[in-house]
Amino acid sequence: MTLSYPRPHRPNHARRLATAVSTALLAAGVLVGCSGDDGPQRTVDAFLAGWRSGDLQSVGMIDPLGSKLPSADVAREIKDLSGELAATPPTLTRRGEPKITKDIATTTVQVEWTLPGQTRWAYDREVRLAHGGDDQWQVIWEPTVVHERLAKGDRLALRRDTGARAAVLDNAGQPLVTPRPVVRVGVQPNGVADIKKLVKDLDAAFKAIRPALVPGVDLTDLPTRVAEAEPGAFVEVVSLREEAYRQIKPRIYDLPGTKFISDKIDLAPTREFARALLGTVDPAQADDIAAHPDRYVVGDLVGHGGLQGRYDERLRGGPGLTVVVERPAEGGKLEPTGTELFRREPQPGQALKTTLDVAVQNAADGALRGEARRSALVALRVSDGAVLAAANGPGPAGENLAFNAQVPPGSTFKMVSTLGLLDRGAVTLDGPVACPKTFTVDGRSFKNSDNFELGSVPFRTDFAKSCNTAFAALAPKLGGDGLAAAGRTLGLEGQWDLGTDAFTGKVSTGGSPAEQAAASFGQGTTLVSPLAMAGATAAVARGRFEQPKLLIDPAPAKPAPAGEQLKPESVAALRTMMREVVTTGTGSALKDVPGEVYGKTGTAEYDDNPAHTHAWFVGWRGDVAFAVFVEKGGASTASAVPIAERFLRALPTS
Question: pTM for the whole thing?
């Protein structure tokens, strides 16, 4: 059907001019719309602006048969057709001037949607206009204006396909986190006989799992969740690794109302395995979606904490997106029509390759497993500084104390003080240095653990027996900045780039004579992390500082440069003394551990109460240097040293 509208009356001379121009242009087939105020492009632009804003009141609308349409109805239909994309209207761009054939103008419009993840979906559509009897151009509305494959009642909908999450790899290039079997333990409300008894029985069973679940399973809200759920629903309680489930299966399998679903979840080799460093992969939480609504939806897997959180975008890749057409079925429910309008294939994530060694990490986790206090163990490869293990306890602890603790190092710092004294020629291995019971500096009295005294003994004995008073007396020989300078040669206070957060230490400098005396044996204002002390220990074993390395790919952009070679004579003497700590000194519990172990114990006061102390041990054997820290661990010989022994005995010797 051809639309026809009466033309307004024009003066004869104008009519003759228009007829002549029209005749000339129509000979070419079309008339290109002019840019004047009465041209169709003004109406097109108003329509495109109204499409985006949802307000078409300034635009005349008709259907293909020429009947007028309320502008508000068209605006509402555009929104309905947009479906799940309605919240982000497309960018609409007129391409060139409208082409006019008699009373019909046609213009090409680019429709560009921005889909989640900044995905661009663009296509061209034609918008037709008719010249009305009121001398105004009106848009001919039909659903195909939005997309050529849409009909009245259709809706655009989004479907997301999650790409394969990439793995975090160990130093051999093998995935650390892979799909591993779990059992989802749940409750079906209509099968529960006594909810209070069920909660009590489940709680007792979960607490019997060894190693203990940390954090434990909180069942406080289970009665409420069960009461509010549909009778046949599966109310999930917890997902247990298969080995943990097998421990308690006889206790929970036949409890009235319990249900079990076998599944697979991306998990590390064990619950403890470098958990604080690696982080976890969990279903998207409400705060994840609220913070990144364009990135996550319900059901997505998201990295939380550690490397999984920091490199989540790299590991998860890009989700696939498909724009489909839905149509109301009987009852009004929208159902897919099978029509796909746009597809972006999911992009797989990129792997993260680390220096972690599975055997060393398992040894570190196992060494901390029996420790109830917060603790950490870091192991480095001496030859190149690779981080082989970063364990935190107790259990699968969430805080990475191994890298980020800021605590006094105690007598492990005598390793740093001794290097500074040796470099200055202030001490020798066998030169006598008195070890009195107490030593006073500016009115502040320093003493040794258990108030021991050695008298005048070779300095190597002061070191092996960890004599605080000897070091307090030697502090002036280091000068105001000598301790910090020695620490810097071992990498402390450096600008390290490991690809994750790490505290490299803060060494006391200047200060009063009493502060300098305290700092000489790791008290005062000096603070370190286990990683920083493991790095310093590895530097002594190696003969120069090399920044610890954790990530191989992507490699950190700005690792700290390697340090200068340490003075060979100073390092040789220090190594001798660290070996004697194990053979005849405070670390003698390790003397029967296979291989040559070097080390230094440390007990660090962390407040004004001398009874409140952290425990340390740093050392190396072969190509593995390590640091052990136990928060509020008391005497190092009772806590840190036994952990070191468990670690070394479990460590492969080859």
Answer: 0.79
